């Protein structure tokens, strides 16, 4: 009598579908989409949006929900969601239409990615993909910037500058400054370990970023955060004596560049002239418009200081102010060019408490002496200072730079602190 064989049980369709999120290809795509978003950030808003939406779709099936909900106990993960929840709640007391209110929610929705990125990259070993992809993309953009600068080629958009091939000079100088300060500790490490070729290569790239910001295009916001980041680098990576020498050398170099750069002298001269014109005539200069927006914002905040006027209410406020005015004074905006004022108009003191608490706890993520900690620290400090003169957390480019940077670098730091990981 022949021995009976057990029947072969083949997995059903539902079992195969359930196994996909754990497959090697699926897990690869979960790490690949943020890297593609980082590479696209200097070039395209559409590509970043597509890649991050795709990432959220593929990352959700991989999440272990009890562990994710446990991770939300950390303020760095919870506060971005609280900010988004406040934006939705503000729809119920907005003084404008719900359609306009929904437009006010849109800039805040990107914060949803922060806790997901923190959770994912605490478990993934490929967070460096995103950082390297962004850096490589910025190096490529810097090279193209110099080519278009010497070719005197300008984009077709109004107010375009030679040397700014895509987007605008504010975004370009923001990302070049970030890359410059992120690379600085790497040069120290390569030099200390005798890697002369890498030291020279990184120094050349850093010099390219720096000279581009001084001779080609830079934002006036960069004048505010650049010295702060210089001091932060000196304090974190140099002893007291070397830090003093470094900062003195930096001051001498900046003064020398100022004397040799017609563009930089013109940029600073226009800033000073704008201040004089604003003081004497209140003309529609860049500074004059910004100060006018701030005065209007403060008056509006005083009318509803605790909970604000509701989500999306900035558009109605500035539309009223533009009525009957001509020229640039008649432009309808929704952004007062200050992150705190932008938040306070809509959600009052409550919104500001959430905003500043989020910045504080994101800074706390990066207290360790790790390279990823330095990256996150630069991103948060740069965003905070630039948000004093702009609304960079809600702007697309700088906002996504903050979200990706904090999420990925924060996840890498958290992974390094977990027992048994390196």
Automatic annotation (TrEMBL):
It comes from the Bacteria. The keyword Magnesium does not apply. Its EC number is 2.4.1.-. InterPro entries: O-antigen_ligase-rel_domated (IPR007016), WaaL-like (IPR051533). Keywords: Glycosyltransferase, Ligase, Membrane, Transferase, Transmembrane, Transmembrane helix. Residues 215-355 form the O-antigen ligase-related domain. The chain crosses the membrane at residues 41-60, 72-92, 98-118, 130-149, 169-190, 197-216, 222-238, 245-264, 341-359, 371-393, 399-416. The keyword Glycosyltransferase applies. It is a multi-pass membrane protein. Its main location: membrane. One of its GO terms (molecular function) is ligase activity. It is found in: Membrane. This is O-antigen ligase.
């Amino acid at each position: 009598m022949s021995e009976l064989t057990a029947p072969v049980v083949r997995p059903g369709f539902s079992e195969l579908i359930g196994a996909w999120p754990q497959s090697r290809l699926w897990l690869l795509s979960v790490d690949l989409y943020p890297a593609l978003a980082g590479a696209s950030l200097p070039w395209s808003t559409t590509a970043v949006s597509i890649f991050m939406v795709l990432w959220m779709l593929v990352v959700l099936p991989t999440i272990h929900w009890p562990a994710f909900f446990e991770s939300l106990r950390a303020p760095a993960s919870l506060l971005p969601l609280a900010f988004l929840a406040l934006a939705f709640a503000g729809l119920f007391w907005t003084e404008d239409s719900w359609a306009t209110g929904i437009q006010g929610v849109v800039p805040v929705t990107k914060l949803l990615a922060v806790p997901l990125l923190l959770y994912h990259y605490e478990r993934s070993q490929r967070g460096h993909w995103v950082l390297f992809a962004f850096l490589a993309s910025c190096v490529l953009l810097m090279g193209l910037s110099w080519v278009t600068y010497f070719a005197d080629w300008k984009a077709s958009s109004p107010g375009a500058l030679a040397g700014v091939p895509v987007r605008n000079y504010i975004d370009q100088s923001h990302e070049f400054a970030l890359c410059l300060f992120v690379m600085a500790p790497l040069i120290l490490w390569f030099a200390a370990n005798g890697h002369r070729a890498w030291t020279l290569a990184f120094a050349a790239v850093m010099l390219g970023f720096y000279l581009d910001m001084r001779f080609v295009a830079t934002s006036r916001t960069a004048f505010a955060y650049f010295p702060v980041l210089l001091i932060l680098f000196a304090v974190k990576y140099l002893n007291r004596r070397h830090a003093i020498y470094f900062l003195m050398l930096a001051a001498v170099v900046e003064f020398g560049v100022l004397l040799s750069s017609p563009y930089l002298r013109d940029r600073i001269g226009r800033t000073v002239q704008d201040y004089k014109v604003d003081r004497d005539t209140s003309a529609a200069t860049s500074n004059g418009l910004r100060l006018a927006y701030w005065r209007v914002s403060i008056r509006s905040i005083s009318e509803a200081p605790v909970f604000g006027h509701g989500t999306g209410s900035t558009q109605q406020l500035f539309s009223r102010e533009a009525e009957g005015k001509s020229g640039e004074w008649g432009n309808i905006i929704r952004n007062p060019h200050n992150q705190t004022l932008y938040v306070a108009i809509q959600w009052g003191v409550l919104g500001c408490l959430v905003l500043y608490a989020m910045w504080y706890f994101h800074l706390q993520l990066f207290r360790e002496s790790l390279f990823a900690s330095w990256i996150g620290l630069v991103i948060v400090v740069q965003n905070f200072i630039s948000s004093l003169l702009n609304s960079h957390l809600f702007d697309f480019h700088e906002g996504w730079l903050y979200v990706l940077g904090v999420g990925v670098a924060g996840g890498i730091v958290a992974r390094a602190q977990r027992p048994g990981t390196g």
